[in-house]
Amino acid sequence: MKKIIALSLFYLISLNIVFAQSLHNPKADQEVFEQIMTQGLEHSKVMEIASWLTDVYGPRLTNSPQMKRANEFTAKLFEEYGLENVHLHRWGPFGTGWELKKFAMHANSPYAYFPVLAYPKAWSPGYSGPVKGEVVHLRIESPDDYEKYRGKLEGKFVMVEEPYASEPSWDPIATRFSDLELLRLANATEVPVVSRQGGGGAAMLARAQSAYERAQFLYDENPLAILDQSYRGWYGQVAVSGATLPAEPGTPWGERPRPYSLDGPKPLPQISLAREHYGRIYRLLDKGIPVTLEMDLQVEFQTDDLYGYNTIAEIPGTDPDLKDEIVMLGAHLDSWHTGTGATDNAAGSAVMIEAVRILKAIGVQPRRTIRVALWSGEEQGLHGSREYVTEFFGESGPGGTVVRKDDYENLSAYYNIDNGSGQVRGIYLQQNEALRPLFREWLRPFSDWSANTVTFSNTGGTDHQSYDRIGLPGFQFIQDRLEYFTMTHHSNQDVYERLVEQDLQRTAIIVASFVYHTAMLDERLPRKGENQPEATTAAN
């Protein structure tokens, strides 16, 4: 309690300085920020929310029954917290839902039995009961090699990769940003440009063509399942995403066949094994020792509702002149299917729910409307947020233009959380340099948490891009990495135990503060291209 009181006093003093120096937000009430701190530190519900999203409603694959239950749960939670205009926004159609009902895999050789740690890829078809077959390693070094396997793979499990080389992990699994790393981010004055140099194009095209031919061959041969290994990690980590279908090299991303398409081609069963177990089976086969696998893969497809849903709720604005303007915060609620979707992205969803809970609990009266969105379809390509933005704000037009919708001019900002459980350390400007002074001021009270880095740099791979791509202010916060990219991301280790309570509490407080600041400004946030100064550095 003493620590909480001391922190509250520190932030109150810091905020006095901020508001004495800042002329941007004359209506901001210092008492609100003390209340945000107290509510966020002493009455936090972020871990309880996260437990419901993971332990009860996880995992949350888009269009699965669990995803739909999570939509309904979060809508009910928003209603309990007193938010208004709570609804499920329908988008799509997306495609079929998929739910893993049962999975087990066992290996037998003449010398040993062992259970296999593995997961099916999403939208893999299943079987009505256990199936058994020999394991074959498909080695293709030239087109002539296909003849050795033609007509011999049906009823077999086919390994398609060479095992990864193993070596000790010398780097720590969990890390936080160092002061030097944050300084480099703060001092960035341009976005790195990745050059495309010649010399690798022909070889890359040849590899893509070989991969396509191999995939097409396997689909013609109809094995029991295609086996590969976790695309990241050791120590029993299995990182998995969705099943794939053959696509000719050069096929645009949006035109490639999707395993969840109702009327499209159907994938073969595809299983990713832990690297250690994949390597063991490979080495047994290499020694001429046969290996038989028994697999029980049972799944259920849902085709009654092909649409995806986003959970939407609001705290209405109260200023007669500004209430139609919108400040948005959001995170994707969907996940992959291996763990329970804890760090990706129950963490972000729980933070955003907690942020609006805090604001509602302390009775804020925002000038602008605060709108929270929990997206689905992010893991398959930002579908939920893209379709929402297209419907209400705008979409890309020909020649780099933007086709603006009704609320394009009304959006002040969108804030996103989707980089794991790590606390906020600052924010990416997405090259919107005009916002640096304002964001610096808003982060100043959190300097004791080392959460005050503002970088000109961009970051991608998540839902703020749906806004940024049409010129709207969309921002992702800088977050400590922790174990996100080394252990949890899209893996069976993405579970509640990987969440860090203090980090999530602090992140919710910072997000709530940013959202409140934005809702109370006299004017909406400037957009890229509007009175943009040159990029500055931390020393300026």
Tags for this entry?
540 residues, alpha/beta, Aminopeptidase, Glucose Oxidase, domain 1, 2 domains, eight-stranded mixed β-sheet, 14 helices, 18 strands, elongated, disordered N terminus
Question: Can you walk through the features of this model?
Answer:
- The strands form three sheets. An eight-stranded mixed β-sheet has the order 1-10-12-11-15-18-16-17, with helices on both faces. The protein has an eight-stranded mixed β-sheet with strand order 3-2-9-5-6-7-8-4. A two-stranded antiparallel ribbon has the order 13-14.
- The two termini are 38 Å apart.
- It is 32% helix and 19% strand.
- It is of the alpha/beta class.
- It folds into two domains: 307 residues, Zn peptidases (Aminopeptidase, 3-Layer(aba) Sandwich); 183 residues, Glucose Oxidase, domain 1 (3-Layer(bba) Sandwich), CATH 3.50.30.
The largest β sheet comes out as: 8 strands, mixed
Mean pLDDT: 92
Low-confidence stretches: 1-27, 193-199
User: So what's the CATH class of the largest domain?
Assistant: Alpha Beta
| Fraction in helix | 25-40%
Tell me the fraction of residues in β-strands, as a range. 15-25%
Whole-number total of structural domains: 2
Relevant CATH superfamily of the largest domain? Zn peptidases
Tally of individual helices: 14
How many β-strand stretches?
Answer: 18
What is the CATH topology descriptor of the largest domain?
Answer: Aminopeptidase
Measure the end-to-end span: 38 Å
In the CATH hierarchy, the architecture of the largest domain is 3-Layer(aba) Sandwich
Radius of gyration: 25 Å
Strand ordering within the main sheet:
1-10-12-11-15-18-16-17
Estimate the global geometry from the Cα principal axes: elongated
